[in-house]
Amino acid sequence: MAPEGDAQDAYPGVGVRAVEFPRWFVCQGCRALARARDKFDDKSGRYIHECVRGKKASAVPVRFVAACRRGHLSDFPWIPFAHMDRIGGTCDRPDLRLDERALGDIAQIFVECTNCSARTPMSRAEGLPYSCTGDRPWLGGRAANEPCDQRLKMLVRTASDAYFAQVVSALRLRDPDPDPLRERVRAKEVWSIVQNVANSADLEQLARLVPVVGSLMVGQSSGAVVAAIKAEREAGDKQAERPLRSVEFERITTAPVEQPGVLPDAGIEFAAYRVPKQRIDLPVGVRSLIVIPELREVRVQVSFSRFDAVGANLQGEFDFDDKKVKPAVLTLPTGNEKWLPAAEIRGEGIFVELDDAAVRDWEQRSVVKERTDRLLRAFAVDPSGEFPGARFYLLHSLSHLLLTAISLECGYAASAIRERIYCGQAEKSGPNMAAVMLSTGTTGSEGTLGGLVEEGRRLRHHLREAWDLGRLCSNDPVCAAHDPSAESSDRRTEGAACHGCLYIAEPSCERFNRFLDRALVVPTIGNDPELAFFRERP
Length: 538
Hints:
This protein has helices at about 35-40, 80, 180-185, 190-195, 200-210, 210-215, 220-240, 245-255, 355-365, 365-380, 390-405, 450-455, 460-470; strands spanning about 25, 30-35, 40-45, 45-50, 55-60, 65, 75, 95-100, 110-115, 120, 155, 165-170, 270-275, 285-305, 330, 340-355, 415-425, 435-440. The chain has about 550 residues and is an alpha+beta fold. An 8-stranded antiparallel beta sheet has the order 3-4-5-1-2-8-9-10. Strands 12, 13, 14, 15, 16, 17 and 18 form a 7-stranded antiparallel beta sheet that branches. It has a 3-stranded antiparallel beta sheet with strand order 7-6-11, with no helix packed on it. The longest helix has 20 residues, at about 220-240.
């Protein structure tokens, strides 16, 4: 956890440390442009410039910086850029001004040198002739820089393409059959010592030297402890190799049947229960409903990119080797920092699993195959990653419709509910997934109030509401007839989807409102009803 700061102290001695960037500031009075510590005075944490008229004005960070597609970030090359057209290059005493007109047009912003009268418009910065120096100021120090073969690009530091975070999330799942001895071996202070133990002789020697290891031997034979260490080591290796969503899907779908009056233990990290079919009315095509009254989700930022986002695969993981855009690291592999920024979300959720046999039959329909080919052709125009397939379009669109319908009655806003999609088969012997999980939570210790779980028990009612929402869009027939493969289309990853029907708040969506098509879920105007998985109202 980050150290706490004192809100009453303007200059706290503790807190999150930050690097001052960009290093170039511009005076709000005379428009002088220079490195902050070269020309401006630091007065109580603010930079002040005494203009030529004798008046003082504050200096603010300049809004233009330079970056490359590998995530490197540096100060904009102001001095050489201002002298681009000057015969003889940079003058001997550069004195820069940033002249910005009121119109806000980048062609009306000029960098000029008052010493030699050189003047260059910022519109020339769209194609900079300078190579990237590999700066990584967020890591600190020149030692953090690395070689780079990219060209610099101008970047507005507050622009939406300045920073795309890559976040991996996983549910906290305990061992389904906890072994008390394995639990003791798994303890952090013990595992760091015994993880490389190979036989009883090694264990007995450690037990004589380290008291915490000796405590493992109380009431246990050395052979049993060694077997527990080997089992924990093999389980760790196996778990690290398996895809995230496949493991979560298996654990959730094998949840015990819900029993009346049985509540999860206080402080438990994860609890899921399958609602018996005799106590819930499930429509055709839906296999089961699993309620999750207690869940904890850990979200970790692993890297970031600039200019272009890097999408995760269907398992919610990132394969950076096949990406055109290379992400930037948050920590140095050889540095002292061995942590990544993360948050733990406590909350609740519902897990809706479709009938895999019904989904496979739906995928084999000729109209669905034709629609899939059309979506694939549109995706191939500007591909980013792998095409997710018709099953993902179905699950993603159903998730958005169901999320909107449930949010109207569960007590949580739609923006507070988050989707998690389980799609496809990532392993040869693994599960063929077709399910969506809707969850809500908070980083606080109180978690949530149970409204989502209780409304989930009325699944058929909410599916009917979702079906009605998807049947007709306020932009129909234009929305329903949208062809992403058409040359005039500006939405290559969506079929029948727009702000009037399927789009939701971006924090709730795993895919930035892409890969959506409600015609694959419900019958829509102008489309063959055979396209819809739920052809009839649930």
